[in-house]
Amino acid sequence: MNIARKSVIAVSALAAAVLVACAVSPPASEAELEQKAIVMMKQDFAKLGPQWVARLDQDEVQALCTRSRDAVTPEVGKEIQTRQLATIVYPASGKLMGDWKKGEAIAQLGRGLQFSDPPGSPAGGNCYACHQLSSSEIAYGTIGPSLLHYGKLRGNSDYIQRYTYGKIYNAEAYAACSSMPRFGHNKILTQEQIADVTALLLDPASPVNK
Fold first, then answer.
1. Residue 148 lies inside a defined structural domain of this protein
2. Residue 194 and residue 184: Cα distance in Å, rounded?
3. Are residues 54 and 128 in the same domain?
4. CATH code: domain of residue 178
5. Mean pLDDT throughout 105-117?
6. Which end of the chain is less packed: N or C, by CB atoms within 10 Å?
7. Is 47 in the same domain as 108?
8. Total number of domains in the chain
9. Same-domain pairing of 105 and 25
10. Are residues 48 and 122 in the same domain?
11. Which of 27-41, 71-85, 94-108 has the highest mean pLDDT?
């Protein structure tokens, strides 16, 4: 996910503001300030356990997107997408669409990777936090594009099924430095759950396509 990248940026900005407000001489460079912010966060996250501290360690893509402030060049963006595309794991059964009803429950569920989650409890996709999916749902976010009539507009060919499953599994494979979580890559959702969400988007009987 992008929690590490966005947390570093946010804390860096806060630290810079505090320094200015207190009339303290700023660090020699922005890189030094960000390093201090990371140390501060790791000290705080350590109280929650090693699994939380580990979430602050950026992988290669997160670090690159942080350094570029999400404004990657077309060449670098293409390289990111190519590498991330290679990480997508499709079900061995070849079945990319599951049960759309289960997919709707996953889309509605906001639990997952939060401080208050019971250990070992299943995570959800929290899809409505960023997207419109069903016309009957009045509460949804607009960070991401509307997905209403997603399958109705695109069909559910093998290509569209593969693309949709892959986009949910690892959005960076199709949009470098995307704000969308890499649900499969970071093991937020299982392959079965991703197939269910794919069905929610593509099945003609799904409320998304009504």
1. yes
2. 7
3. no
4. 1.10.760.10
5. 85
6. C
7. no
8. 2
9. no
10. no
11. 94-108
Instruction: State both tokens at 134.
Output: 């069903």
In a domain, 69, yes or no: no
Tokens of 47: 């109280």
159: part of which helix (H) or strand (E)?
Answer: helix 158-169
Whole-angstrom CA distances from 187 to 4, 74, 129, 169, 192 are 16, 28, 19, 9, 12
Instruction: Encode pLDDT of 47-62 as tens digits.
Output: 777 777 787 788 989 8
Rounded distance between C-alpha atoms, residue 31 and residue 28, angstroms: 8
**Could you tell me if residue 176 is inside a domain?**
yes
Distance CA 157, CA 202 (A): 9
Cα angle 143, 145, 147 (rounded to 5 degrees) comes to 130
The CA distance from 87 to 71, in Å, is: 23
Cα–Cα–Cα angle for 188, 190, 194, rounded to 5 degrees: 95
Range of the structural domain that residue 12 is part of: 3-58
Query: Which one-letter amino acid corresponds to residue 92?
Result: A
Q: What residues have CB less than 8 Å from 11, skipping those under 6 apart?
A: 37, 38, 40, 41
pLDDT range class, residue 202, cuts 50, 70, 90: very high
